[in-house]
Amino acid sequence: MKLWLNVLLILSLYSCYAKTLDKDNIPEKVQANMSDLLEAEKRVINIYHNSVNSVVNVSNIRVSDSFFYGKTEVPQGSGTGWIWDKEGHIVTNFHVVQGGDSFVVTFHNDKKQYKAKVVGVAPRKDIAVIKLDELPKDLTPIKVGTSKKLMVGQTVLALGNPFGLDHSISKGIISALGRKIQGIGGVKINDMIQTDAAINQGNSGGPLINSLGQVIGMNTMIFSTTGSNSGLGFAVPVDTIKRYVPQLIEHGKVIRPGLGIGILEEQIRDRYVGKTGAAISFVDPDGAAAKAGLRGMSRDNYGRIYIGDVITKIEGKAVNNLDDIYQMLEKFEIGETIEVEFVRDDETKKTKVTLQAL
């Protein structure tokens, strides 16, 4: 009985794999040469040919003024993106499109250049969505999986355009999960996937793919002293991308919960308050924090400045800076009420704040 159960499990897994990867996407010439290969090699080849047409090169173009030539288009760099839907939305990194005035997208085995425009960006997650002005004849969205059940050691593939070498694939494993990496938006990106799959300049924005051919992350950055791969690559988990991309498409920005406050820079806080807590610099008079009675810095008629409330905990967990508050509030939804503990005039107080949309 146990043997039959194992056989059924294997058949079920094979059936799932077969449905995920379509052999029709593999050129006949390639299929003819695959017969003597190992199963692991065949799987990588299958994944490549089932994904490559959904992965694009994104070129960032900036318009500059020249005394002799007037306005000229200057390439700023390039990265990678992947097709999100049939409407022509493409997911990539914010830093791939940052500072660009126009964008050119190219597909695998398609010499035509397609123009695109930015739809929305989430700098603090290094996510951006662009949309094609004109759709190619065949537009295939990539298969999107989940990052919820990833395990250290499982095989992953990185697909992209390193150093401008279009549609390259590299193989590795998940080296670690839950990494906190400083992002381009000024706060840390939580739950990053660490991989040793080769990621280089130009891979940014490309998909990190599992052994079922599903996107489980977006390749975003490397840790390197030379600018080349050193076995330390990081990807934004796809569950984060799935949360933000629909908002970027609909609203052009991420609508997230907030307190309606500003926070002092840590250097200034250290000087006047100490090294713990997040000191409020200002409070939006119409915001959630103001309604809950929180106060920011103030100035009297003589120009003397008074320190405002210092937030020490949110829902019982210590916070010391803007990054801590950002990561804490990301767990809640707009309209939820949270408990905020703060210090005012050396006295610890608590208040309830109903989160507002920012």
Description of the structure:
The protein has eight helices and 22 strands. The radius of gyration is 24 Å and the shape is elongated. 21% of the residues lie in helices and 39% in strands. The chain has helices at residues 2-20, 28-32, 39-51, 94-97, 238-251, 266-272, 288-291, 322-329; strands at residues 55-66, 70-83, 89-92, 102-107, 110-122, 127-132, 155-160, 168-182, 188-195, 207-209, 215-222, 233-237, 257-258, 261-263, 278-283, 298-299, 305-306, 310-314, 317-318, 337-344, 347-354, 356-357. With 358 residues, it is of the alpha+beta class. It starts with a helix and ends with a strand. The strands form five sheets. Strands 1-2-3-6-5-4 form a six-stranded antiparallel β-barrel. Strand 8 (168-182) and strand 9 (188-195) form a beta hairpin.
Short description:
With 358 residues, the chain is of the alpha+beta class.
Short descriptors:
358 residues, alpha+beta, six-stranded antiparallel β-barrel, 21% helix, 39% strand
Lay out the secondary structure.
Elements lengths: L1 H19 L7 H5 L6 H13 L3 E12 L3 E14 L5 E4 L1 H4 L4 E6 L2 E13 L4 E6 L22 E6 L7 E15 L5 E8 L11 E3 L5 E8 L10 E5 H14 L5 E2 L2 E3 L2 H7 L5 E6 L4 H4 L6 E2 L5 E2 L3 E5 L2 E2 L3 H8 L7 E8 L2 E8 L1 E2 L1
Antiparallel strand pairs: 1-2, 1-4, 2-3, 3-6, 4-5, 5-6, 7-8, 7-10, 8-9, 9-12, 10-11, 11-12, 13-22, 14-15, 15-18, 16-17, 18-19, 18-20, 20-21
